[in-house]
Amino acid sequence: MKSNPKKAGLSSTFGTESTIVSERKINKNSRLPAYAQMADLLREGISQGEHPPGGRLPSESALARTHEVSNMTARQAISVLEEEGLVHRVQGKGTFVRKINVTASSFSLESLSDVLSDREHTSVQVIKAGVKKEPGMEKEVLGLEPNQPVIKIERIILYNDEPFTLHVSYTRFDPKSPTVEAMLDTVLLTGLMFQEEYSNFKKGTLRLLPANLTEREAHYLKMAVGENVFKLEHLFFDFNDRPAALGWFIVGHEKMPLISKIGVWND
Amino acid sequence: MKSNPKKAGLSSTFGTESTIVSERKINKNSRLPAYAQMADLLREGISQGEHPPGGRLPSESALARTHEVSNMTARQAISVLEEEGLVHRVQGKGTFVRKINVTASSFSLESLSDVLSDREHTSVQVIKAGVKKEPGMEKEVLGLEPNQPVIKIERIILYNDEPFTLHVSYTRFDPKSPTVEAMLDTVLLTGLMFQEEYSNFKKGTLRLLPANLTEREAHYLKMAVGENVFKLEHLFFDFNDRPAALGWFIVGHEKMPLISKIGVWND
DNA sequence: CAGTGGTCTAGACCACCCT
DNA sequence: GGGTGGTCTAGACCACTGG
């Protein structure tokens, strides 16, 4: 199918050689599971206008009947499309093809992940690491008194020996905690950013912001002062639900493209 | 549980009144489905360290046995946690508790959606609308000759009569197309941004970028020149897979907070 | 009321992993 | 081979929607 590109416009859908997608059979001996084949058929049907945006899909039981599978299998097929954001179900009414919508999309950090999990080509360069005793807003966030110490680390993560991102973090210094070493490991070196994650944190929040490079940041990242970059703030909590570490990454947007596809992509 | 906050640290998990989460029964007469109750129990177990990060959950059949439900139901419970990003399954090996990881998160535009779908408090103010005949890079993207016309629209979306976002769009002008009106409707007024979406596009890509307000943008948005903002670019394709509309939104980051939660949040 | 999606069962067989 | 997740069946009953 995908190797036979043709003009598949709304009006040319029913040409002589084109088959009605919804009538194609599924092959139960294929390595591809029945539900996946069925999802493909439905997706193609949507793509070719057989089920227009806003329209209703055949009911689950009808689909199960025509494709000769059980109810649960048909349901699973539809679930695939639902997770892709292509359809949505309404109990008692039916399953409807979603109309395309910018606000329905989401952006993942996998491009960041791809780079950082590639240990072969990634290295870390510590700029500054030590105990900070002066007051600061980070202590407020971590629930500490102004005179309690925190661990501050600044480092650059390099990819192919080129600066990729700058990471600043503040971690609560609590020698009584058995997890402090693990936290340090997490925040300092390997954790948070490599495939083999080491984090012992329970939960966290992230916030993405637009920013401009400061002189200092630009220096370390070998970029121009004022350049548009992303600032990715993080705050992590330990298993006692106490804030335990906060910080942020500075990374150029061309190094971390945030792209999202919506609608029906058949490739 | 949630109304009884206590220090539930790793070492204080097995206090006198706390029960081992995994041994609590599910109530088959509850309005809450069995799989959801089971997912809650597992989530709580993870939250309290019963299943530490990196550890393996009991097998699906074991969980089905101990909770006295069928295999499929236990499986569905685990699927909930998997969709939440809390566990991941490996065929032949087991289901494992994910270690927390910044790069695993994703950011949705629902804060934007919330505002734009609130028709009560939203209005649109068109700055400029017309046919552009001069060459421009937008024509290249749309696959047009330099002298073919495009429709250009600039408008502000207001929320509670305050400027919320600036939208610029270029749409292919193709009077022969039966969908051109629908496209116009989509891009101009209601579509793309309100709950009742009208889009007849098949697919699209979005890209999020950091930017600084230009003088012109700042003027219309009543913000300061140079302020850090998000630029959300979009490109939509019609059902013939031809690029049909492109444009971008400019929106302040405080109006569109991009926040993501990761790990175990029990609330 | 009939039709829809949502949940659930008690099995079955398969693909995969490890020992 | 034994354990794991992945797929699948042929039903059942429920909750919700709309006429």
| Biggest sheet: strand arrangement of chain A | 4-5-6-9-8-7
Overall, the morphology of chain A is: elongated
Order of helices and strands of chain A: HHHEEEHEHEEHEHEEE
Query: How much of the residues of chain A is beta strand, in percent?
Result: 25-35%
Architecture overview:
The structure is a homodimer of 267-residue chains. With 267 residues, chain A is α+β, with helices and mostly antiparallel strands. Chain A has seven helices and ten strands. Helices cover 24% and strands 30% of the residues of chain A. In chain A, strand 5 (150-159) and strand 6 (162-172) form a beta hairpin. In chain A, the strands form two sheets. The first copy, chain A, has a six-stranded antiparallel β-sheet, with helices on both faces. The first copy, chain A, starts with 33 loop residues before the first helix and ends with a strand. The model of chain A is unreliable at 1-17 and 185-198 (pLDDT under 50). In chain A, helix 1 (34-47) crosses helix 3 and helix 2 (60-66) crosses helix 3. At the A-B interface, strand 3, helix 4, strand 7, strand 8 and strand 10 of A face strand 3, helix 4, strand 7, strand 8 and strand 10 of B. Strand 7 (203-212) of chain A pairs antiparallel with strand 10 of chain B, so a sheet runs across the interface. Chain A binds a DNA duplex (19 and 19 nucleotides) through helix 3.
